[in-house]
Amino acid sequence: MTRVLVCAGDASGELHAAAFVGALRERLPEARFLGLGGAEMEKAGVEIVVHQRELAIGGLVEVLGDLGRVWRAWRRLGARLLAARPDLVVLVDSPDFNIPFARKARRAGVPVLYYVSPQVWAWRRWRVRKLARRVDRMAVIFPFEPPFYAGSGLAVDFVGHPLVDRLPAPPDARERAALRAALGVPEDARLVALLPGSRRNELRDGLALQIETARRLHERLPRTRFALALAPSLDRAAVEAQLAALPGAAGLPLDLHAGRTYDVVRAADAALAKPGTVTVEIALLGTPLVVAARAHPLSAAIARRVVAVPTLTMPNLVAGDAVVPEFLQEQARPERVAAALEELLEGPSGELQRRRLAHLRAQLGGGGAALRAAAIAEEMIAGTPRP
Fold it and tell me: What contacts 19, CB < 8 A, 6 or more positions away?
């Protein structure tokens, strides 16, 4: 029986992993899957050895307080790797967990496919050599990634971005009106989607910024309403408690929506998000957005020294231009972020950004990323030489 161990340590990576599992199961119906993931992977038939909520933390300094939990998860998954002896390990994003785990898999003699490359093009480029030693094949999702592995000896394939398959096209006026009605948004209101992140530290650092921005925007545009899209890795009661402690949230027309992120984004006139995969999702859904975030000051100081790209906003990197306004750290002042959102809502910037975002889907491939990644996995399991 074929066994495949799949590791996806965060919410966005887990969705890609679940689609990959479904695609590989079509090719290998007898395969059994186990690993690190969450509810979506469980629905896809994966036996969850470690739940991804145990790793719902990010940042350079912030993770220190969670090292004990991370270590216990690491040991549990490593023990299962040795006990199950899978035919293949598939690592999905989450490089701080998965790159070390790749070494454990390599030492156990299990071939490794890395699906969704670590962002070696952005920072810590020395990881290319480490990946080349520990990983057998790499399936990347951005067309500009393969050159960064040139000369490493690592086999790298661009398979396209999995979000192109999973996300619907931007809604037309009729569908958008139906979405807004389902969310209880008045016809004459402006709607701004708030997406503060899927990790606890992101919520801690970003929620206050987003709420204060919303308050200032509402003062300037009283018809504006706000919808906070709650990531599945976060507890609703905990978020509500944080909101109750923020003075800016009092009296703000704000609704929380769990499990309806895409509906919220597609219904919105604009979105406010942190950097990361969510910016690609919003762009593919066709909603104009602003990116703003604050991190722990020490994390930010370290990032300034090591990050090798001019922007942390993925649509800007793909386009090679500042399509989306970005406000990070000391630049992320509520009044500046609110002004950028107001320009999207009331000025010409919103329609201009919509037109530029429409090109993103073509740049990220024509779909079929999970199918291509599954074909590579089947090839590796069968031991077929790479053409």
Answer: 44, 162, 165, 166, 369, 370
CA atoms of 16 and 92, how far apart (whole Å): 8
**302/61 Cα distance (integer angstroms):** 10
Q: Is the pTM of the predicted complex or chain greater than 0.85?
A: no
Query: Largest Cα–Cα distance of the chain, in whole Å?
Result: 63
Confidence label for 60 from pLDDT (cuts 50, 70 and 90)? very low
For the chain, domains (ranges, CATH) are 3-162+368-382 (3.40.50.2000), 168-363 (3.40.50.2000)
Q: How far, rounded to the nearest angstrom, does the alpha carbon of residue 161 sit from its chain's CA centroid?
A: 12
Closest CA to 105 of 153, 128, 127, 137: 137
CA distance 154 to 133: 8
Task: State residue 254 phi and psi, 5-degree precision.
Answer: -130, 130
Looking at residue 307, its pLDDT comes to 67
